[in-house]
Structure to design on (301 residues):
């Protein structure tokens, strides 16, 4: 179905809206393979040697330790922020305590690599005008269901733009976000602010501090701070979709997701594509190799 890439209308819709949902991008057997591999990674993962790193995006905190930086080309595990009790003990089975697995699945896992480097992805990237498409930051993203006692999990993602985290000049990052399970209003589907990528300037960046020795921090981009419109919750629209859908996310579109308030999980797989002809900023948290660089996986030249 997507062998020919995107139509001119689809490309225009993506540029206008900032997000585009492509139903049935993955065949059912591809979805099953990714779900099963995600579950295998969760169950095989050895908790005994883990530094118990959580996935946090907190504006006021310096976050990002060596385990986080090291994940750029590995398969590492990040816990939910509510995974532990005050004593530091896990509150949930480990399979329901992980927020993300990343960020080198496309490099180190054959099942994810095959889907990521698929000809359909090449065709979509070509439709979007990439001259030298590069893949980075692949991850499984989990929104686990409410607990057995109906306790709500802390798995909402606040409004953000991806260029905040993957800064290139010019901005070329596009998120490829695959629904591995049906995404609904109840289990935390994506929401976005249509057209915001053309209206809201980038006002902050998530950067390494002191070469990463002091983690990462959000820094304001003051030259962009004037005439920023108000980001209103009522401007967001949900993207409910079936398992197998691919959602393309513009680097500058505002998007978010709610908590999973249901008893069904919401598994997703995502990676980013950038153009190798753009300048990948050395202050970005993700570097390949980890010591610093942009030796990213070539989708095509
Ligand atoms: Fe995002």
């Amino acid at each position: 179905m997507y062998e020919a890439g995107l139509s001119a209308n689809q490309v225009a819709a993506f540029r206008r809206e900032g997000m585009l949902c492509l139903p049935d991008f993955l065949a059912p057997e591809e979805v099953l393979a990714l779900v099963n591999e995600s579950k295998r990674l969760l169950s095989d993962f050895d908790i005994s040697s883990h530094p118990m790193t959580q996935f946090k995006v907190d504006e006021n905190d310096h976050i990002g330790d060596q385990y986080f930086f090291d994940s750029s080309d590995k398969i590492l595990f990040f816990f939910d922020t509510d995974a532990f009790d005050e004593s530091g003990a896990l509150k949930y089975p480990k399979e329901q305590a992980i927020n993300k697995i990343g960020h080198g699945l496309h490099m180190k896992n054959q099942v994810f690599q095959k889907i990521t480097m698929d000809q359909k992805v090449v065709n979509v990237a070509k439709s979007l005008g990439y001259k030298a498409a590069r893949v980075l930051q692949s991850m499984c993203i989990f929104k686990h269901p409410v607990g057995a006692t109906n306790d709500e999990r802390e798995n909402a993602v606040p409004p953000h733009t991806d260029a905040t985290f993957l800064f290139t000049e010019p901005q070329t990052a596009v998120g490829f976000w695959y629904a591995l399970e049906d995404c609904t209003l109840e289990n935390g589907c994506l929401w976005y602010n249509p057209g915001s990528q053309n209206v809201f300037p980038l006002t902050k960046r998530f950067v390494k501090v002191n070469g990463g020795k002091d983690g990462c921090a959000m820094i304001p981009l003051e030259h962009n701070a004037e005439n920023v419109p108000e980001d209103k919750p009522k401007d967001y629209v949900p993207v409910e979709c079936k398992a197998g859908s691919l959602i393309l996310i513009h680097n500058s579109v505002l998007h978010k997701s709610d908590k999973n308030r249901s008893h069904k999980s919401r598994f997703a797989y995502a990676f980013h594509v950038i153009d190798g002809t753009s300048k990948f900023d050395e202050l970005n948290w993700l570097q390949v190799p980890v010591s610093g660089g942009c030796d990213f996986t070539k989708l095509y030249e």
Remarks:
- Residues 28-44 form the longest helix (17 residues).
- The radius of gyration is 18 Å.
